[in-house]
């Protein structure tokens, strides 16, 4: 087998073509013949129906003529006899015309008669009766019109009419039946011919399939297999060919095909390795407003009027004219507008096998502007965050120092003085004087209780022992009770869902500090008399709500960021909430109180 597909033998192809033409001709002939036969049958059928109609009318006219003659023979009125005589003449005339029409036809009425020998012989047999009736009727009319008194002659004519009319009617029935039978025979013959033509057409179609289509299909199948084999060989040969050469030729063809589209869509240009323009796209020209630019000018002159930018472009082209280049550079239009281009420079050989460079560019000026804006915003945001973090850090340090000073002051002024007094009381106890010693011991007990209470208060403000030992709800219960005692305000905790689950220690201490800050804000700033702390939970969320009946505030005037003047309480709350992956909601209106909601995930 060669590398090209085998073709059908020319003689075989010509033979199949002749057979195909003969088969199609046979089918066409059968269709034409069937159409001719059907048309002829329809015409014959139409003519036969008219013959049967006229023959039937001839029977009717013979009966009508006989009846009218009898009526005239019995008429006593001259006027009635005259009218009947005219009617008989009309009927006789129609009868004679119909009799002639059935035998000879009438071309003026497109009434063609082609009687069979049987029908012709029947008309010859019926002709004597027809003549007898015609002559007798005419004689009868003559006798009646002359008012003849010869009754014998009239009776004789009536007998002739009656006898021959009956015989004519019987023979006319036979003629009508013969017409009907011949029409049926024609239908049967046509059905047989149609069946023969149908069978012939089917045989031609079967023969055409077996002789022409089936061998052609087999030959086509073999040709397709050979084509597929040839295609596989071509693919294998293509894979073994020089890949670089193939890709270069393909690139040239694709560039030629897409050149016009690239001119319309891309910033597209072709230049020589020295940087001179050989082709430039419409969008490129419109962007730099250089529709009438000299085609042999340097691309650097088109892209910028500035010498330093021109030198940069020429350097890039000179250094990368063989390997290609991708990158960005800034250009300046003839009107002084800065334009940033994302450039792909691709070396290729033109159809004249001359080396050229393709420039495909994108105008990224807007992107550069947006990037600059993003960088500026990022810088400003970073500086703002650094300033905010600096304020937070300073406040945290100040709060830590204040807290340490407060603790030191509480210990020095409270616990320290009480310990000094305890020391002096212990030293002044005189065991030799029991009464004075007992009074001093009572004072020692009272002073010791105060020391214990002071230590407990100091440690409570640092980390409540209930939080470490029992969890958030007992700690908050203790917090509300202690603050209620110290401030005289009605502060209560309501554990709505009976929450008793222990959480991570860092989560619990942050929950405690956030709630503590919210209660302290309600005490210090809200001027509230009632504060309700509600704890509730679902399967996934723990919620703590601090609700007061204070004076509230306008949320629009709430400081969004901390500064040197304050606003750190809310910032600390939000920082702590963010640390434990929770969410903080503050709802307040002037004179409507404040509601702080803290939600944290339990899973």
From TrEMBL:
Catalytic activity entry: ATP + protein L-histidine = ADP + protein N-phospho-L-histidine
Cofactor(s) listed in the protein's UniProt record: [4Fe-4S] cluster
Swiss-Prot/TrEMBL keywords: 4Fe-4S, ATP-binding, Cytoplasm, Iron, Iron-sulfur, Kinase, Membrane, Metal-binding, Nucleotide-binding, Phosphoprotein, Transferase, Transmembrane, Transmembrane helix, Two-component regulatory system
Cellular component terms (Gene Ontology): cytoplasm; membrane
InterPro entries: HATPase_C_sf, HATPase_dom, His_kinase_dom, NarX-like_N, PAS, PAS-assoc_C, PAS-like_dom_sf, Sensor_HK_TwoCompSys
Subcellular compartments: Cytoplasm; Membrane
PROSITE patterns xrefs: HIS_KIN (PS50109), PAC (PS50113)
Topological relation to the membrane, as annotated: Multi-pass membrane protein
Principal location class: cytoplasm
SMART domains the record matches: HATPase_c (SM00387)
Annotated protein name in UniProt: Oxygen sensor histidine kinase NreB
Upper lineage: Bacteria, Pseudomonadati, Bacteroidota, Cytophagia, Cytophagales
């Amino acid at each position: 087998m060669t590398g090209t597909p085998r073709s059908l033998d020319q003689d075989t192809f010509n033979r199949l073509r002749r057979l195909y033409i003969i088969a199609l001709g046979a089918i066409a002939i059968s269709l034409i013949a069937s159409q001719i036969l059907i048309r002829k049958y329809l015409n014959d059928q139409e003519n036969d129906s008219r013959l049967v109609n006229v023959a039937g009318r001839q029977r009717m006219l013979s009966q009508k003529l006989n009846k009218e003659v009898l009526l005239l023979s019995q008429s006593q009125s001259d006027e009635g006899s005259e009218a009947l005589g005219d009617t008989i003449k009309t009927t006789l005339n129609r009868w004679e015309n119909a009799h002639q029409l059935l035998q000879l036809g009438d071309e003026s009425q497109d009434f063609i008669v082609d009687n069979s020998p049987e029908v012709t012989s029947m008309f010859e047999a019926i002709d004597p009766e027809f003549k007898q009736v015609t002559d007798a009727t005419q004689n009868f009319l003559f006798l009646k019109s002359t008012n003849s008194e010869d009754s014998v002659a009239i009776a004789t004519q009536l007998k002739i009419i009656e006898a021959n009319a009956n015989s004519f009617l019987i023979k006319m029935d036979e003629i009508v039946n013969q017409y009907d039978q011949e029409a049926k025979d024609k239908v049967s013959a046509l059905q047989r011919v149609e069946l023969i033509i149908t069978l012939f057409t089917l045989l031609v179609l079967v023969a055409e399939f077996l002789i022409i289509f089936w061998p052609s299909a087999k030959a086509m199948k073999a040709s397709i297999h050979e084509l597929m084999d040839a295609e596989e060989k071509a693919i294998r040969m293509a894979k073994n060919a020089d890949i670089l050469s193939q890709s270069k030729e393909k690139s040239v063809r694709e560039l030629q095909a897409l050149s016009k589209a690239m001119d319309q869509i891309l910033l597209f240009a072709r230049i020589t390795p020295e940087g001179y323009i050989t082709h430039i796209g419409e969008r490129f020209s419109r962007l730099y407003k250089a529709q009438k630019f000299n085609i042999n000018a340097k691309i650097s002159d088109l892209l910028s009027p500035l010498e330093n930018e021109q030198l940069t472009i020429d350097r890039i082209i000179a250094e990368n004219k063989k390997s290609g280049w991708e990158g960005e550079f800034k250009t300046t239009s003839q009107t002084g507008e800065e334009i940033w281009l994302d450039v792909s420079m691709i070396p290729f050989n033109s159809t004249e096998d001359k080396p050229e460079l393709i420039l495909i560019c994108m105008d990224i000026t807007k992107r550069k502007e947006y990037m600059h804006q993003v960088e500026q915003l990022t810088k400003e945001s970073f500086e703002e965050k650094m300033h905010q973090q600096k304020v937070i850090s300073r406040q945290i340090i100040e709060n830590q120092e204040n807290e340490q000073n407060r603790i030191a002051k509480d210990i020095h002024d409270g616990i320290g003085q009480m310990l000094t007094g305890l020391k002096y009381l212990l030293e002044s106890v005189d065991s030799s004087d029991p009464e004075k010693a007992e009074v001093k011991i009572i004072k020692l007990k009272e002073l010791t209780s105060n020391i214990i209470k002071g230590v407990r208060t100091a440690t409570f403000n640092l980390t409540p022992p209930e939080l470490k030992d029992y969890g958030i709800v007992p700690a908050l219960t203790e917090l509300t009770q202690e603050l209620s005692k110290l401030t005289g305000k009605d502060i209560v905790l309501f554990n709505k869902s009976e929450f008793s689950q222990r959480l991570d220690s860092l989560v619990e201490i942050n929950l405690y500090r956030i709630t503590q800050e919210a209660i302290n804000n309600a005490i210090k700033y809200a001027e509230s008399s009632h504060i309700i702390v509600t704890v509730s939970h679902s399967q996934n969320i723990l919620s703590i709500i601090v609700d007061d009946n204070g004076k509230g505030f306008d949320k629009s005037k709430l400081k969004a960021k901390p500064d040197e003047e304050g606003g750190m309480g809310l910032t600390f709350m939000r920082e702590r909430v963010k640390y434990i992956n929770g969410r903080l909601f503050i709802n307040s209106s002037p004179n409507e109180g404040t509601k702080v909601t803290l939600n944290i995930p339990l899973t």
